[in-house]
Design a protein that fits this description.
The chain has 476 residues and is an alpha/beta fold. It has 13 helices and 16 strands.
C-alpha cells in the first residue's frame, strides 16, 4: 500500500506579553516574587495556547530575516509542520539561524533500546481553555514531580542576554511559555524556540548554531563525538525537562470509550486490522457497539522522536516486526507533517487513528483511547503519565541524565506510552552564555515544572528533578 504524505496546518503561536513583577536583571527575587513568577508560567501557557488556535502563520522571522528552518529539515520540508523561528521578536542580534541549511539526521534505529526518546511536531498546540489537563490534580504533582522546588529557593539568579535553541516540537508549547515568563521575570532576551524536530535540534547544536538543543531522544553514541567537539572537548549532557504522554487519538462517531492493547495497535498501524469492527478490537471492548468503518491510520511523515518512542513501545509490547527509529517504516497509512498535521488529519477523517502528543490531541478535541498493557485499561491523565515516568531509570553516566522508560509496564494506573524531551547542552565550554544557560534551564527545572499539566505534560519526578537541578548548577 502506498504511503500518502500530507501537510499539516501549522498552529503558530505568538507568545503574549505578561504583566508581572520582574526581578532585576541581576537580582534574586523575594519569595513572593517567586510565587508570582510561577503563576506567570501559567499565564504564559494560557495566552500562548489561545493564540495558537487562531494563528495560521507558517513562518516567523528571527529578528526579521533569519529563519529557524533554513532550507532543509527532516522530511524534506522547511519545518515539521511549519517554519518556526530561532529568534522571533526577542532576538538579540539575530545574525545566526537555528538550522541554516543543515539537514536533520536521518532515521536512527533504536535497535530495541528503551532509552527514552521522543517527539517532533510543528508548533505549539493550542487550547482555548485555561484549565489543567484531565487528571492534573494536586495528586499529579506528587505522583509526577516535585513542583515545589522554586527558582529562588534552588539558588538560581536572573541573567540577561540571548539564547538560541531549536529541536523537538513536542516540548514547543512548554518551552515557549517558559521563554515568555523567564524573559519577563529577568529582563532577558531568550530567543523564540526554533522547533523543527529532534533531529534538527541535535544537528543545529552540534553545528554550533544553537546554544542548546531539544530532542525527544538522548544523544546516541555516534552523536556524542560531534557534540563533544562542539563543546570544545567537554561532554554534552542530556537534561530531561518535559515528560510528554503520547495519545492514541481517534475519530469514530458514536464511540467515545475505547480500549486498545499493544497487539491491536500493532495490527492497526501495520495495516493488518483494517475495520473498526475487527474481532481483536471487539475482544478488547466487550459490549461496545463498533461500526464496520474502515480504519485510516496517520503517522508522522518526517523524522520524529514521537515516532521513535511509539515504535519502541510497539516493539517492547507486541510482535511489531519493524525497526524502531525516528522515521516511519511500516507499510500503509497516511503520513502527515508535524504533530499538528497528524491531529488535523485525524480530525478531518472519520474512522481515523494516530499517535500524537497529548496537548495536540486535546487541542483538536479528539477522542483518546485507553491503553491496556495487561494490567487493566488506563486512561491518559497527568496522574497516570506521572506514575509511568516515576519508574524511569537514569542510565546516563557522569552528569548525563538520559533515562530508560519501561514501555511494557503492567503497573495498575500507569499510562505506558510516554516520552521525555531533553535539553542538550555543553557541561562546560559555554563561554559568556554559561550564566544565562544556567539561569534559564534552572527556571525550566523549577518554576517551569508547575505549568506542565496545562500543556499536556507531566512534571518531573522529585528524584529526577533534583538531579537535573544539580547538573544545571554545575554548567560552566
Amino acid at each position: 500500500m502506498k504511503i500518502t504524505r500530507i501537510s499539516g496546518l501549522a498552529a503558530m503561536a505568538a507568545a503574549a506579553a505578561l504583566v508581572l513583577t520582574a526581578c532585576g536583571s541581576n537580582t534574586t527575587a523575594a519569595p513572593s516574587a517567586a510565587t508570582s513568577a510561577a503563576g506567570a508560567v501559567s499565564s504564559a501557557v494560557d495566552s500562548a495556547t489561545s493564540e495558537a488556535m487562531t494563528s495560521s502563520s507558517s513562518s516567523d522571522t528571527a529578528g526579521g530575516s533569519d529563519t529557524a528552518g533554513g532550507s532543509d529539515t527532516a522530511g524534506g520540508s522547511d519545518t515539521a509542520g511549519g517554519s518556526d523561528t530561532a529568534g522571533g521578536s526577542d532576538t538579540a542580534g539575530g545574525s545566526d539561524t537555528a538550522g541554516g541549511s543543515d539537514t536533520s539526521s536521518s532515521s536512527d534505529s533504536a535497535g530495541g533500546s528503551d532509552t527514552s526518546s521522543s517527539s517532533s511536531s510543528s508548533e505549539m498546540p493550542g487550547s482555548s481553555s485555561s484549565s489543567e489537563m484531565p487528571g492534573s490534580s494536586s495528586s499529579a504533582q506528587s505522583a509526577g514531580g516535585a513542583t515545589g522546588a522554586t527558582f529562588d529557593a534552588a539558588g538560581f539568579k536572573c541573567a540577561t542576554g540571548d539564547l538560541r535553541s531549536s529541536g523537538s516540537t513536542a516540548q514547543g508549547k512548554a518551552i515557549s511559555a517558559w521563554i515568555t515568563a523567564y524573559n519577563a521575570k529577568c529582563g532577558a532576551k531568550v530567543n523564540a524556540y526554533g522547533g523543527g524536530g529532534s533531529g534538527k535540534g541535535i544537528t543545529d547544536f552540534t553545528k554550533n548554531q544553537t546554544d542548546f538543543g531539544g530532542s525527544d531522544s538522548a544523544l546516541k553514541d555516534e552523536q556524542k563525538g560531534p557534540a563533544k567537539d562542539r563543546c570544545k572537548g567537554s561532554d554534552a549532557v542530556d537534561l530531561p525537562l518535559v515528560t510528554g504522554p503520547i495519545a492514541i487519538a481517534y475519530k469514530l462517531n458514536g464511540v467515545k470509550d475505547l480500549t486498545l492493547t499493544p497487539k491491536v495497535l500493532a495490527g492497526i498501524f501495520d495495516s493488518k486490522i483494517t475495520t473498526w469492527d475487527d474481532a481483536a478490537i471487539k475482544a478488547a471492548n466487550p459490549g461496545a457497539t463498533l461500526p464496520s468503518t474502515p480504519i485510516q491510520s496517520f503517522h508522522r511523515a518526517e523524522d520524529s522522536g514521537t515516532t521513535e518512542n511509539f515504535t519502541k513501545y510497539l516493539k517492547a509490547t507486541s510482535d511489531w516486526s519493524y525497526d524502531t527509529g525516528k522515521g516511519w517504516v511500516a507499510q500503509g497509512g497516511t503520513g502527515a507533517q508535524g504533530s499538528d498535521g497528524v491531529a488535523n488529519g485525524i480530525a478531518g477523517a472519520e474512522g481515523s487513528i494516530g499517535y500524537v502528543e497529548w496537548g495536540f490531541a486535546t487541542a483538536a478535541n479528539l477522542s483518546i483511547a485507553k491503553i491496556d498493557n495487561g494490567g487493566g485499561a488506563v486512561e491518559l491523565t497527568a496522574d497516570s503519565a506521572g506514575k509511568a515516568v516515576m519508574a524511569a531509570k537514569v542510565v546516563g553516566t557522569g552528569k548525563d541524565l538520559s533515562l530508560k522508560l519501561d514501555y511494557a509496564t503492567k503497573e495498575a494506573g500507569a499510562y505506558p506510552i510516554i516520552l521525555v524531551t531533553y535539553e542538550i547542552v555543553c557541561s562546560a565550554g559555554n563561554g559568556d552564555k554559561a550564566a544565562l544557560l544556567k539561569s534559564f534551564l534552572g527556571y525550566a527545572a523549577t518554576d517551569g515544572q508547575a505549568a506542565l499539566t496545562k500543556v499536556g505534560a507531566a512534571p518531573l519526578p522529585a528524584e529526577i528533578q533534583t538531579k537535573v537541578i544539580d547538573v544545571i548548577k554545575g554548567l560552566s
